[in-house]
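Worked example 3 (structure in, sequence out).
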């Protein structure tokens, strides 16, 4: 049985409901995925439930950077900068195709957050604490050099710049690959399955009643320890714990803030590097080139609406456009230039009297009287260490019967490369193969950055399929792979979280919608009603990405 094949779901549920697990993880975002991998690789019997698709919460809605936390330096949190810097290096080593070094430009402007000397020292210290290689260290630029690097920057306020290294990733792909790696170590992860109630033995949680929203039925999962990695839903999950809900939830609770990103076609906002720049209100935002687009983010505002579907408002979009138009005046971006967008919720820990930007991004673990372990806060970048802390605790509760954390040296699935050079060589090989079919470098980058070495399986399937349109044939091969190995149940899973197309290549979604709808309908044997429902869902998602209320 392959737990991430949609064709093995019955067997998966059979196993989940009949075995007794050491650990049940609630939440299939990066935090839950990291915990499942850490536990399974120490030999624990691990189950993981995700009520939506894997990464459908905050873990597909971030800025998609694995970063060392420059803002921590401003608060003199040197230990934290060192810690995340080192984690960044580990994340790159374990997934060189997916955690990719990229130059970031910090423009120095009159009245900006950072002065020239402070920036030079700060970036040097940043690199030093993170143990960065000599070829990746920061370089300070004169005004002229900065203008040359980024000609669109506002010239009359520019004083110079600092060019340093950060890492970009795809948060949802990172999450799914960590989930798959956990499954390789024996974990049983399931998506579209909600933990709706707890089961108890003498007031201690001993599992959960789960609801499978694909087959629409309930079943129980029994486990010695349950971890709540519910991200923005952490408090909701804690509130279903009948034994300790009031006391523990009141003591510490989440403070949700919303962060929005907008996507602009590259030709409308062509920048050469990622740029981290000042905004009038004292905040800083990113502009990041990616494929055919440049994306901009983020906002940071208090939030209390729907957790499943946070919306991008007109005010959010206008705030980001204004910031770009101030710093890059020639772009003159308008609402109509936005081709896609997303909003995510930061599950931060509430601190009385603090504004959204002042709240700490550190993670915290809460343990309730019923034994439920909840983890919230933190960053994508630190997921491995967060998982280690939680699983160390789980191990203690299991009488230290399992060994130490091993994830520092575990390559995630598809990442069988020693370094970035090997990734580049592999992209070239894939591009050569695809060129025989009228495709090329763009498609090769797409495959390898998303699936790493697993691209071989997709290419093999590509050769077996029939379709005169090579791009559609390749997408069908990808869909085949995602159904068999990545638990895709809806086209939105595929277009948003497995391939990123809805965010960064929305034109391709419009083109591929029909052939892929026909293809997925065949695999699932859907009737006309179900097919129409799927079509409506993806069409609504497409229009919501460009609609601002
Ligand atoms: C705008 C923004 C930008 C960010 N940028 C960055 C960045 O560039 N770099 C970085 O390092 N970090 C960044 N972060 C932070 C990072 O994205 C988050 O820390 C991380 O994704 C949180 O992951 P999580 O797994 O804890 O939560 P989530 O990804 O939300 O996962 C929780 C999951 O639990 C599931 N769930 C909830 N209740 C149940 C239940 N009862 N049963 C089953 N499943 C359940 C949900 O469906 C959800 O998928 C950013 C965050 C935001 C909002």
């Amino acid at each position: 049985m392959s737990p991430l094949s949609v064709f093995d779901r019955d067997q998966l549920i059979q196993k989940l409901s009949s075995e007794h697990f050491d650990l049940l993880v609630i939440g299939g975002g990066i935090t839950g995925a990291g915990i499942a991998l850490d536990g399974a690789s120490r030999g624990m019997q691990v189950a993981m439930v995700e009520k939506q698709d894997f990464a459908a919460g905050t873990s597909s809605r971030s800025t998609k950077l694995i970063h060392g936390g420059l803002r921590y330096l401003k608060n003199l949190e040197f230990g934290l900068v060192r810690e995340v810097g080192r984690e960044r290096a580990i994340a790159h080593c374990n997934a060189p195709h997916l955690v990719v070094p990229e130059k970031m430009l910090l423009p120095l402007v009159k009245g900006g957050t950072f002065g020239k000397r402070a920036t030079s020292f700060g970036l040097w210290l940043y690199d030093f604490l993170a143990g960065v290689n000599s070829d990746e260290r920061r370089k300070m630029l004169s005004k002229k050099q900065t203008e040359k690097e980024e000609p669109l920057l506002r010239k009359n306020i520019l004083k110079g710049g600092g060019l340093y290294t950060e890492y970009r990733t795809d948060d949802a792909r990172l999450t799914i690959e960590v989930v798959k790696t956990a499954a390789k170590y024996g974990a049983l992860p399931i998506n579209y399955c909600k933990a709706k109630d707890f089961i108890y033995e003498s007031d201690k949680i001993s599992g959960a009643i789960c609801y499978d929203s694909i087959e629409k039925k309930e079943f129980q999962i029994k486990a010695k320890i349950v971890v709540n990695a519910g991200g923005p839903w952490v408090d909701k999950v804690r509130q279903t714990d009948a034994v300790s809900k009031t006391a523990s939830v009141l003591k510490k609770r989440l403070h949700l803030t919303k962060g929005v990103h907008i996507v602009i076609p590259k030709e409308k906002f062509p920048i050469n590097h990622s740029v981290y720049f000042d905004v009038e209100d004292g905040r800083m935002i990113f502009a990041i080139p990616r494929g055919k687009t440049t994306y901009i983010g983020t906002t940071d505002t208090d939030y209390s609406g729907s957790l499943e579907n946070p919306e991008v408002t007109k005010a959010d979009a206008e705030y980001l456009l204004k910031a770009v138009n101030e710093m890059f005046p020639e772009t003159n971006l308008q609402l109509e230039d936005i081709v896609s967008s997303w909003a995510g919720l930061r599950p931060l820990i509430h601190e009385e009297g603090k504004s959204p930007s002042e709240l700490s991004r550190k993670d915290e673990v809460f343990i309730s009287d019923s034994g439920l372990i909840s983890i919230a806060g933190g960053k994508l970048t630190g997921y491995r260490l967060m998982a280690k802390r939680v699983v160390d605790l789980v191990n203690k509760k299991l009488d230290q019967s399992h060994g130490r954390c091993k994830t520092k040296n575990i390559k995630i699935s598809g990442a069988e490369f020693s370094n970035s050079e090997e990734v580049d060589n592999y992209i070239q090989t894939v591009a050569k193969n695809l060129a025989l079919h009228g495709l090329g470098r763009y498609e090769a980058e797409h495959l390898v950055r998303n699936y790493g070495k697993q691209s071989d399986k997709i290419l093999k399937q590509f050769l077996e399929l029939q379709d005169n349109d090579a791009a559609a044939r390749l997408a069908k091969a990808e869909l085949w792979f995602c159904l068999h190995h990545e638990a895709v149940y809806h086209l939105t899973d595929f277009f948003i979280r497995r391939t990123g197309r809805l965010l960064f290549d929305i034109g391709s979604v419009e083109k591929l919608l029909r052939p892929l709808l026909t293809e997925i309908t065949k695999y699932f044997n859907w009737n006309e009603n179900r097919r129409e429902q799927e079509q409506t869902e993806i069409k609504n998602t497409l229009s919501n990405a460009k609609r601002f209320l």
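Notes: The chain has three domains: 6-59+172-253+360-409, 254-349, 420-544. The first helix runs from residue 9 to 18.
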